[in-house]
Specification:
alpha/beta, eight-stranded mixed beta sheet, Rossmann fold
Length: 239
């Protein structure tokens, strides 16, 4: 499914950011990746590769890259934030001068800030003065699998229904299934499902079916945060 042509900036050229940048370009969007290292930028623009994080995977020739964070933020409506969690606050502060209430920030980073115990969404809300709409994308997926177009799935949480629908259409493809929720906190804390379901570890099943099973456990846990319903389809919107 091709989405409308949106201007999207991916903040961070690691494996996950690069894989989703590739997906978004192939879905018909204009994408620019912010790279910390000039060598990574040159590799993407000249060789159409990210040899440091996704070696041997060809990237679209139309994928743009820059080492100027302000430029990427200024040129984009949607910002896909894929920096390591311990750099999140620092990057958010650098983004602030270019952020407006027209921006949408999709958070890929996982974790809780060590000294404040803040979730990634709380850091962005605080440092960006609650200006952009926030969303969280998370799932038991590996960047290389998404980049290789293997069947994958994830959950996208966004409190604003219209924004969530727009993002779902932008990311969704025949090989990347995106389920929608409004529970940003639940999606960020899904790692605690390992505690609830300790016997689904990778030692008990092949790697691929392990993550398929874990993904449905994740949907189950998100669903039953809402005791008023027994059907996850009430809270998770599928294309």
């Amino acid at each position: 499914m091709l989405s409308e042509n949106l201007q999207i900036g991916v903040i961070g050229a690691g494996a996950w950011g690069t894989a989703l940048a590739r997906l978004l370009v192939n879905n018909g969007n204009s994408v620019q990746v912010w790279c910390l290292e000039a060598e990574t930028r040159q590799d993407i623009l000249t060789n159409h590769l990210n040899s440091s994080f996704l070696p041997e995977i060809r990237l679209p020739e139309t994928l743009n890259a820059s080492t100027d964070l302000s430029e990427v933020v200024r040129n984009s409506k949607i910002l896909v934030a894929s920096v390591p969690s311990h750099f999140t606050r620092e990057i958010a502060k650098k983004m602030r001068s270019e952020i407006t209430d027209e921006h949408i920030v999709v958070i890929l980073s996982k974790g809780i800030e060590q000294h404040s115990l803040a979730l990634m969404s709380e850091i962005y809300a605080n440092e960006l003065d609650n200006l952009p709409k926030l969303a969280v994308l998370s799932g038991p997926t590996f960047a290389r699998e998404v980049a290789l177009d293997l069947p994958s799935a994830a959950v996208l949480a966004c409190a604003d229904e219209e924004t969530g629908s727009l993002l779902q259409k932008s990311f969704h493809s025949a090989r990347f299934r995106l389920y929608r929720s409004t529970d940003l906190i639940g999606v960020q804390l899904y790692v605690f499902s390992w505690i609830v379901f300790p016997n689904v570890g990778p030692h008990r099943m092949p790697w691929y079916w392990f993550r398929v099973r874990f993904f449905w456990i994740k949907l189950f846990l998100l669903t039953f945060r809402f005791p008023s319903s027994f059907l996850f389809v009430s809270h998770l919107n599928l294309l």
